[in-house]
Amino acid sequence: MELSLSGVSKTYRSGRVKAVRDFTASFGPGVYGILGANGAGKSSLMNIITGALRPDSGEMRWNGLPVREQLSSYLSVLGYMPQQQGLYPNFTAKQFLWYMAALKGIKKEDASRQIPELFRMVNLESGANRRLGTFSGGMKQRILIAQALLGDPQLLVLDEPTAGLDPKERIRN
Question: What's this model's pTM, rounded to 2 decimal places?
């Protein structure tokens, strides 16, 4: 399992703002962090990795093959937690995870096994039937972590995963 990026660049505002400039790296099994100041292009890079944003130049490969040639299979092994919390406030946490499982094409029997385990993993068992609109910022972060883990992804991209978590939950997660 390897994701490699070669010469990836992204600009905005007709080329005046260079968000990502000639980024090259290979990611094998393991945990990686991308650090940088606000506005350094970290979220743009993650959006390129997840296929939500197309780079202006460069190439991205998954297991040696260009991602653009295998986009649907690449996306099927990807788990993503965005920095911005785009949650449905009237959904319960359980409804949200079931909805995300359906969007990811996860079989019902697999989802029914995974969802309770994910609630346990992110310490939200008691909030499973609460509406997301009533969740604190940290609880929202944890439900987003849970949805990223749905389907047991091979590649997990988390954008600011500990933002809003209290210190005990940062250690737990």
Answer: 0.82
Distances (CA, A) of 55 to 22, 26, 89, 97, 157: 10, 17, 32, 30, 17
Predicted confidence (pLDDT) per residue in 11-52, tens digit:
998 888 999 999 999 998 888 888 888 889 998 999 999 999
Amino acid at 139: M
What is the DSSP-derived secondary structure letter of residue 133? Answer: G
Q: Which residue, chain included where needed, has tokens 């096994």?
A: 113
Residues 6+ apart with CB under 8 A from 49: 3, 5, 60, 157
Radius of gyration of the chain (CA): 17
What crossing angle do the helices spanning 93-103 and 108-121 adopt, rounded to 10°? 130
Return the DSSP state at 69: G
168 is written with which tokens? Answer: 């005990």
C-alpha 96/C-alpha 10 separation (Å) is 32
Which has the closest alpha carbon to 32: 56, 7, 1?
A: 1
98 pLDDT band, cuts 50/70/90, is very high
